[in-house]
C-alpha cells in the first residue's frame, strides 16, 4: 500500500496563504464599493428630498393647505401625470420661480427627447436646492459640479468673487487638488486670466483650448481642454465669476448649454451675496466711509449708489453725496444735486463712452477708470455746455466714487504751449553764464538729434556745429548777445551728428543783474527747414486758392438764391377769420453770412392757422438747405392735426436723425379761429411778445431744448386767448441781439419799442426793423399777428 500524498485528505482543502489574502482584499473592495454606493444614494436621496420639500412649500403657499396635505397632493399629481415625485417637484418649482433657470428648463423640455430634457431640468433644480442648502461657497461648487456640470462632461469648477479693486478670490472649487486651490486662492488686479476676461468684458468667455490660448488659470496643467467663464451679475454689478473646466476640447455647444451656464452663473451671484465672505474680503457697504473720504479730497467728488428696479436690474445711480469742493456744471446748489439720479442731473452723460457708461462699467467690474481729458456735458437753460476735465472713477463696495478736476487756465496754457512748441518745432533753452549750467527742453534735444542724456550744445560753441559758410553770421550773433548784451536773432545751417543739415533760426536775450552784469541767456531754436518748401508750395497753391474762392462765392450765391426763393423779403398780409398776419424778412448784409432763419404762416386744412419762426445754426448753403428741410417738414407735419408740442417733438427727430447735424431753435403756434385760442410751444427760442392795450409782455410759457441737440425731447404747450386788437410778435434773435448786451437787456428794448408804437401791423414790423439795435449782422424774421 502506497504512502498517501501530502495533498490528499482534509489538509488538501485548506487554500494557500496567498489565496486567502487575495480573497480578503476582494471582499474588502466590494464592501468599500457597496458603502460608497450607499453614500452616493444617500446624498441623492437627500438632494431629492430637498427638491421635494421646496415643491411642497410651493403647494402649501398656492393651495393654502398644510404640509401633510401638500405631500399627498404632490404624490397624487405625480401618479396622474405618470412622473416621479422628483420630476414633478422640478416642474412645480419651474412654474413658481419664473427665473432664468425656468427659462432654461423651458428650452430643455421643448427639445426632442423629453426624457433627457426632463432629466436635465431635475439636475439643474437639484443643483439649485443643494446650493441653497449649502453653508458656504465651497459646498455650492461641489453641488454644481455633481448635479449640473458633471453630466455635461465637466470635471472641475471654480467660483471666484470679484473685489472692488477688480481682484479675484477663489471662494469655492471642486475637482481640483487641494494644493492647486491653495495656489490660486487670490488673483491680483491686472493678471490676464479667463475669469478676468469674463469680469472686464461682462460676457461669457468660451475658450476651446486653454493650452493654446496661453492664459494662466487654475488647473491649467491637468485640465487644458475647453474652459468657460461666465460673469455672476446681480443688480448691475459683477460680484464674481463661474469657471467650468473640461479635460478635452469640446465641439461647439448648442444654445441650451450656454443658457445653462448663464443660469448657473446667476445662481452663483445670489450665493456670493448671501454666503459669508472670505476673511479679508474688502467688499461691503462702505458708503459712510466713502463720504468721509470724499470730504477730504481737494477736487469735486460724487458718491453714487446703484438705483435698481423692483426686479434687481440696474437703472441708474443715485447721487448719495457731493463733497464741499463740488461745483455743479450747470450752476445748481449742492443741496439740489444731492439725491438726484445721475441721468436726471446730467442727462447728456448717457452716450456711449460718456460718464454714465464709464460709471456703470466700473460699478459692474470693479476695474477703476482714469482719464486725463474727458468731456463733461451739462444742460444750462436747455443749452449743452461742455468742459474738459480729468476724471477718476473707482468702486468701493456697492458704491462708486467719481472725482473730476476741470482743466484750469494755467494747465490749459501749459498744454497749449507744449503742443505749440512741438508743432512749431521750437526748442527753448536757458544758459547760466556764471555757473555754466545749460537747460534744454525735450523739443530742443529732438531738434538737434541728440539723446536726452547727452550734453547740450553751449551757445558759445555754436559756430563749431554750423555750416562753414554761416560762421561769420553766428559770430555776429554771439557778439550781439554775449558782448553787447542785446537781444539778437539769426538763421543758420546746423550740421547734426547724423549728417543731416537743418535750417535753424535762433533767438536769444541776455538776463542782467542790477549792475548790468550778464547772468544768463534765454532763447529758443526753431527748425525752419520747411519754410522754403512752404513758400514754393504756397506759390503753387495760389491758383487753387483762387479757384476755391470762386467756388465759395458761387455757393454763397446759390444759398442766397435758395433763401430768397423760399423766404421773400416781404409777402402780402394774410387776413382770415378776423386774424391779420404780416411777415418781414431781412437777410444778412454780407452774402457769405447767409443764414437759416425761416418763418411760416399758412391756413391748414383744419381751418387752423400755423405760425412759426426758426433759426438754424450756421451759415451758407448748409444753413439755407437746413432751413428748407425744417420749414417744409413742419408744414407737412402740421397737416396731421397734431398740437405744437408734438410737432416740435417730431421736428426734433427730423433734425437729429434725418439731417446732417442740424441744430435749430423754433417757436410753433396754432390759432383756432372758433375759440380764439392760440396754442404754442418753443424749442430754445426767444419768447413771443404780446402787445395788449398799450402794454408789451414777453410770454413766460414753456421751454424746451433746441432741435437736434438730443435724440428724444419733450415739449410742453401753453395757451393764450387773443382779445380784439391784441398783437403777437414772433421773431428771431437777429432782431434784438447785441454783442455787448445780454438777452434780457435786448428783450427789454423790444418790449419798450412795441409798447410805444400804435399803428397798422405792417408799419409796426417796418418800425421794429428800421430801429433794431442789433449788431450781429444776422438774418432777421418777424411774424406779426393782430386780431381785428
Automatic annotation (TrEMBL):
Q: Where's the ANTAR domain? A: 32-93
Do you know which InterPro entries this protein is assigned to? ANTAR, Bact_Sigma-Reg, GAF, GAF-like_dom_sf, PAS, PAS-assoc_C, PAS-like_dom_sf, PAS_fold_3
A GO term for molecular function: phosphatase activity
What are the UniProt keywords, alphabetically?
Hydrolase, Transcription, Transcription regulation
Q: Name one Pfam family in it.
A: SpoIIE
Is Hydrolase found in the keyword set? Answer: yes
Q: What is this protein called?
A: ANTAR domain-containing protein
Instruction: Please give the organism.
Output: Saccharothrix syringae
